[in-house]
Every structure is written in structure tokens, then in C-alpha cells.
Amino acid sequence: MANNFKIKSLRSEEFSDLFTLSDAELSKRGIIRMIVDEKPGFPCRVSLEDAEIGEDVLLLSCQHHKTNSPYQSTGPIFVRKIAKTADLGVNEIPQMLTHRLLSVRGFNELGMMIAAMVTEGTSLREILNKTFDNQEISYIHIHNAKPGCYNCVAERV
């Protein structure tokens, strides 16, 4: 069965003011300003693109799973200074995900994880479709499997 989904990023307005802060002010908040020195290696959770060498990014902790369940979660993310909120089409997979080993975690409407698997990014479309075959799954979080960092969420359309 084919299932339509839409991948959504974090929103740029959540982070844009952080780039106006000094390194000392960022440090007080546990945030680190970095200059990208390799590509890929700094996946932006707002643009859903790998940052380019020489770009200014922030490494910060973000509560990406805001739920009243044991699965609420916070973790490290990169955000590009020039990031604009990604606006992907239905069933569109950002290239940033295709060259990574991914952890795919399906949650029900109560924020409880009821499915989890690891896949190569090249198989993500198939895995999302298969995971959404389970009608109990409301949304899917996509993480980088090795470091475990959050990337984005896929929602049913």
C-alpha cells in the first residue's frame, strides 16, 4: 500500500536570533559556534541540507520530541546561519538523508515509540512507506544512526 508523507524540518525562527549572540553568550547557553571544515559532516536541521565548507553553524541542544511520554527527547543539532526552513513536497526525500545510515522511529499519537529500524538513506522512501502501513503510527522521527542525532520528522499526508 502506498502511503504519502511529508518530511518537516525545524523552523528557522527558532534559531535565527542565536546568531546575533557573542561566543561568550552562546557558551553560557551551552551552544558552540563552528566553521564547517568538511562536507558532508554538518547536516542542518532547518534547511535539511549539508552545510558548505566555510559556513557558520551552531551546535546546540534542541528538544525535538516534545511529548508527555517517556520518549520525550533532546539532543544535539547543527543549524546553518543562512538556513531557511525547508519546504519539501509530498514524498520528497532531502539529499542530506540519502548518504547517511539512519534510524527510523515510529510513534503513536501518545508519543510512544512502537516501531524502530535502521536503514541506509537510499532506502528511506521504502522504509517510511512500510512503517506508515502500520495505522497506529502517527509520525516518524529520522535520526542519524551512528551518532543518534535527530534529523527531521515525517508526517502522514
What portion of residues belong to β-strands? 25-35%
Task: Please state the average pLDDT score.
Answer: 97
Shape: globular
Topology as a string of helices (H) and strands (E): EHEEEHEEHEE
Give the distance, in angstroms, between the N- and C-terminal Cα atoms: 14 Å
Whole-number tally of structural domains = 1
In which order are the strands of the major sheet placed?
1-8-7-5-6
Give the total of beta strands: 8
Low-confidence stretches: none
Total number of helices: 3
Main beta sheet: 5 strands, antiparallel
Structural class: mainly beta
Taking Cα atoms only, what radius of gyration do you get, to the nearest Å? 16 Å
Please bin the fraction of helical residues.
Answer: 10-25%
Describe the protein.
The protein has 157 residues and is mainly β. The protein has one domain. The chain has 3 helices and 8 strands; from the N terminus they run E-H-E-E-E-H-E-E-H-E-E. It has helices spanning 23-28, 95-98, 124-132, and strands spanning 5-8, 32-35, 56-65, 73-80, 101-107, 113-120, 139-144, 150-156. The longest helix has 9 residues, at 124-132.
Short overview:
This protein is mainly beta and 157 residues long.
Brief descriptors of the model:
8 strands, 157 residues, 12% helix, mainly beta
